[in-house]
Amino acid sequence: MGKKNVISATICLVAALTIATVTGKNFMDVKAPDTLHPSANVTETKMLSDYFGDLKGTNSDTPIYVFKGSKPGGSMLILGGTHPNEPAGYLAAVAFLENVKVDQGTVYVIPRACNSGFTNNDAQEASPQYLHFTNKNGQERQFRYGSRAANPVDQWPDPDVYIHAGSGQQLSGSETRNLNRCYPGRPDGNLMEKTAYAIVQLIKNEGVDLTFDLHESSPEYPVNDATVAHEKCMDFAAEGMLELQMEGINMSLEPSPTNLHGLTHRELGDYTNTYPILMEAPNASQGRLRGATNEEMALTGKDKFYVSAAKLGFVYVPYDENGHPIEERVGRHLQGIIEYTKAFSSIHSDKPVSFENVPGYEEMFTDTDPSQLGGPHFGSFLN
Amino acid sequence: MIITLIYRAIVALVLIFTIWNLFTEKKVALQANAALVVIPLILRFLMIK
Amino acid sequence: MCIELIIFIAMVAVFAAGCFWLKLPVSISMVISAIVGALIGGQGIPIRHLVEGTFSYVDTILVIACAMIFMKVLQENGSLDALSCMIVERFHKVPALLLCLIMLVIMFPGMITGSSTAAVLSAGSIMMPVLILMGIPKLETGCIIAMGGILGMIAPPVNIPAMLIGGGVDLPYVGFEGPLALLTFPLAFLFVLMFGFKYVKHLDYEAIRQKMNTESREKYGFRNYIPILVCVFLMILNKAVPAIPDLGMPLVFLISAIVGLFTGKKVPVLKTAKEAINTVLPVLGILMGVGMFIQIMTLTGVRGFIVNVCLSIPDAWRYLAMAISIPLFGAVSSYGASSVLGVPFLLAFLAKNQVITAAAISLIASLGDMMPPTALAGIFAAQVVGVKKYTDILKKCLVPAIIMLVWATIIIVFSPQLAKII
User: Domains of chain C: which residue ranges?
Assistant: First the structure.
């Protein structure tokens, strides 16, 4: 080993360590949870580990905001951030909890259901790390844009093949970190199975009647602008969907496939007494056809490649130069929650849930100055 | 989980041999190649990423 | 010309200049081209993105490194020599059958793990001396191992590309066994006979026996095979009994390598492990470079541009576009190509049978492991047999690759009819 050799080797190693230090700090910084400001009507803040102690001290423990109405009634759970790379799913839950006043029944909101995924970004997806807004007081708020599944360091290594515990269904190994393939979960499973198990315990212990799981999907994915519901939800879901359509929201209603396991709309319906509903909105920033990936795309949904793909018939949602701004996607979810809850409460009159002050589709999107879409208008609903 | 600890040990093993090769490699370009491999290994060993 | 095309051309040009003009390692050329792509795309030098991109391959790095340690231990302790002697002695009278059996053995680790690298480096390296002893030249032996590796990756029961493609459209991995068997086994037997049969038609066993290194076999007997049996047992264990937690390929290879230290000739542990890592470092570096390259392609919109161009080709040409673009993109990795291009193409062929089409697309995607600069199956097959230029193996595999593309296309075209039979 020559001296020159050692010098160049040392330089290379120091360079590698420097890069690892700089990027390592950045990767550590994104693990800090976003600060949320629930509305003054919040009655209690719990943690998911309150329902399953094994989660305590892990990256999967996450806050649950509880809103109790003055009148007794049914109970409802909103799961945001099941997939942390689907921002409208997370931000709809945030907008809900920062504005809601519950009149009847109890509402539980978990804005970051897959908290671990918020501490990471998917390799080779070039996702933005944060989304920024100015709130109603003129202050800056920032929210994490995370990875689809849990952070690999929280549950490593992945198996070659992920076998769903309840059904024996086989999926690629990385799906073992996908919370929405792990339901109903198991207490002695991996972190995501434990997380799913904890959510199931919450539903069982609190007797949650109605559960919403808020998602986004890429525009080329066939299930889009859609509600997927367990077969037992069909009566009130059909009524809610008609209301949504009358309000100008293009929404389809699909029954949960019986042969696809591990998802909320299948397993929560099968294993608990809750009525599970999953909603999808179009998100270009997670799609395979998208152009340059950045915060602006995630917020405005504007993308020239999706416009041309739509002309060729490759996408399942209308797509033009206006994109699908975050206000439209969040507004769809919030209006969906409003309408499905109303329909549920009218059919299941023994367990009604009612709330107010949640911005709907019109307030969030259609009645808005188009120049304020893509972030500014959404920010005005944040505390 | 014990399996995670075992895999961290495997990463450490590969990392050590990579750094050893970095120092015995004569060509600077190949040293840089080895240094490239060191970056993700060290971040995974520390469970940062 | 759109900005994405300009960036793509610049990235490819810088990569080519780095490799061929400046004679830099492939990995370093890819890093530089990724940086240039980011600069043209107005992203500066996005260190976080460059490093983040490499994390797609951390698990792959461990599989490759541990598989190579296993292989070097088997070489050093004499297990490989012993196994070759035993196989040739038992089967030399039926050479065609022997070749087909060897092909199945090469494919086996790929079938169980869904990784061509695992197949090439483990069973490929174990079968290499047998094929060479039988008189098949190094180059053809390399081709057999490479094709065995990628067909093993696609053959049932485990096919990760098909799972990735199916996962993109919520298609459960159910009912894939038949189509995958039809797609892979006929081709595997065809290719092994294509490459090897003419050399083994008239096998001269006596001449071969002279060349065999029987020392290990005579001295250690059955003990020689224990590390290989341990490896096979551990690979199957979790698949057969899902209740047992998956050890993962790296650990399986390491355990088997450790067992190998005690079953044959004495192995200099540190030297062997260091040599093993030294052998795979160029490939590990390439994977890092590719990770950075693809992350910048995604960041700047080049990835989306490529997917759009492929999809916007008229219907009649779409098969051709798929047959060319998926293997080309597979240069990044066959898994990456399955997810990024396989899913949109499956959606574009919605009128066909989904399971059979997804299975056939996965076969096309497997060719990504023969596409430079990564060409994992080609590079490792060359290393296993000791061929200096892995591109020689790629050239020789061109005809089988075309046969694979044609076979996959036929199966997609006739998938509605096939669905009724399979």
Answer: 46-421
